[in-house]
UniProtKB/TrEMBL annotation:
ATP binds at K46, G53, R54, G55, E109, S112, E117. Belongs to the succinate/malate CoA ligase beta subunit family. Pathway: Carbohydrate metabolism; tricarboxylic acid cycle; succinate from succinyl-CoA (ligase route): step 1/1. This is Succinate--CoA ligase [ADP-forming] subunit beta. Its cofactor is Mg(2+). Transmembrane segments: none annotated.
Length: 398
């Protein structure tokens, strides 16, 4: 689960991490009061969307005075102008995709006088099963470009969970950033604070870009992006409360309510499969025959009829879907249960696209019988290869 920058900064502040003072602004009419509360003389108006690259982003349907999703203001009036220019617009950045994201929240922050911009992130390194730090002097924007063309500018190390963050980890960070004296001490303290926050809140990724040295000689986190491990959210109701559903795919939210593993994609073939591995194989074979999957969907091993119905409704509600492939291997799952779920859903929402069903395993004959006797125009398939070819040709892509 992702949260907004201003929420991430509030989480980090609890651990003593140095972040600027700021006020979230949800209505243009609140901008003036927020600006006066902070006092200036420099403010930053920051678009809050779950995507990076905001500074270099561009608003859709450009208007006079537009200048990206992060703007420096030098007076209360300027803050008010920028807020009213940015709220409600759609911002397109390198990370949003061409559709962009609507800016419904802004964050007004104290402006810093920046001397240097660094990059620092923490993530779970699966190969070492540890939390890793990634640090670079080349911060600001475009860390991907640095990783690609100047990998020697990136320093990475991981922390043994038994010892946790030790002073030498902090010194490694300071050295990688070329800091000495008091700034090195600040880097050491920050390293321990960020590690503590990461572990305590079950984060999956924490990215500070930029981490800056201000003209007053202070190390400060000017941007913060956090993703939390969804499997640990039950331990953090305070984090779940920060969820902004308008940032998430409506189909994925609906799927999570039914405990379905669903990821929306861009293709035209809706897939309903049991088991993540089989779902991946199904997506691969759809591509092999020339079409693209509209989603990844694993209904799980022990899906009930209601769960299958819910899954089918989510697939058919997607306007991109031009055909549906149901591919079920009945092990724990029984084919007749799947068949009943599919038919119940078709009865409820109708069937406007071709539907290919491939069933195999426990109670397969009963499952096929239920589908054959339903009276709906369902195309039966014998195996995965046959199923993929049938659905791809049914949508006219073969
Ligand atoms: P994004 O990464 O989405 O573009 P950032 O929060 O990193 O958004 O902001 C982009 C740039 O704007 C930063 O690299 C920094 O140079 C500048 N910036 C951001 N916040 C502040 C601030 N509080 N004071 C001064 N400059 C800032
Ligand atoms: Mg940034």
């Amino acid at each position: 689960m992702n949260i907004h920058e201003y929420q991430a900064k509030a989480v980090l502040r609890e651990f003593g991490v140095p972040v600027s003072r700021g006020v979230p602004v949800l209505k243009a009419s609140d901008a003036g009061a927020a600006a006066k509360e902070l006092g200036g003389p420099l403010w930053v108006v920051k678009s809050q969307i779950h995507a990076g690259g905001r500074g270099k982003g561009k608003f859709k349907e450009p208007e006079a005075g537009d200048k990206g999703g992060v703007r420096l203001a030098r007076s209360v009036e300027e803050v008010e102008t920028f807020v009213s220019q940015m709220l409600g617009r759609t911002l397109v950045t390198a990370q949003t995709g061409p559709a962009g994201k609507e800016v419904n929240r802004l964050y007004l922050e104290d402006g810093s006088d920046i001397e240097k911009e660094f990059y620092l992130s923490l993530l779970v390194d699966r190969s070492t099963s540890r939390v890793a730090f990634v640090v670079s002097t080349e911060g600001g924007v475009d860390i991907e470009e640095v990783a690609h063309h100047r990998p020697e500018k990136i320093v990475a190390f991981s922390i043994d969970p038994v010892t946790g963050a030790l002073p030498h980890h902090g010194r490694t960070v300071a050295k990688a950033l070329g800091l000495s004296g008091d700034l090195a001490k600040q880097a050491e303290k920050l390293t321990a604070q960020l590690y503590a926050a990461f572990v305590a809140k079950d984060m999956a990724m924490l990215e500070i870009n930029p981490l800056v040295v201000s003209s007053e000689g202070l190390l400060k986190c000017l941007d913060a992006k956090i993703s939390f491990d969804s499997n640990a959210l039950y331990r953090h109701p305070e984090i779940v409360a920060l969820r902004d559903e308008t940032e998430e795919d409506a189909k994925e939210i609906e799927a999570s309510k039914h405990d379905l593993n669903y990821v929306a994609l861009d293709g035209e073939i809706g897939c309903m499969v049991n088991g993540a591995g089989l779902a991946m194989a199904t997506m691969d074979i759809i591509k092999l025959y020339g079409a693209e999957p509209a989603n990844f969907l694993d209904v799980g091993g022990g899906a009930t009829r209601d769960k299958v119905t819910a899954a089918f409704k989510i697939i058919t509600a997607d306007p991109k879907v031009k055909g549906i492939l149901v591919n079920i291997f009945g092990g724990i799952m029984k084919c007749d249960v799947i068949a009943e779920g599919v038919i119940a859903a078709v009865k409820e929402v109708g069937l406007e696209t071709p539907l290919v069903v491939r069933l195999e395993g426990t109670n397969v004959d009963l499952g096929k019988k239920i589908i054959a006797e339903s009276g709906f125009n369902v195309i039966a398939a014998d195996d995965l290869d046959d199923a993929a070819q049938k659905i791809v040709s049914a949508v006219g892509k073969a």
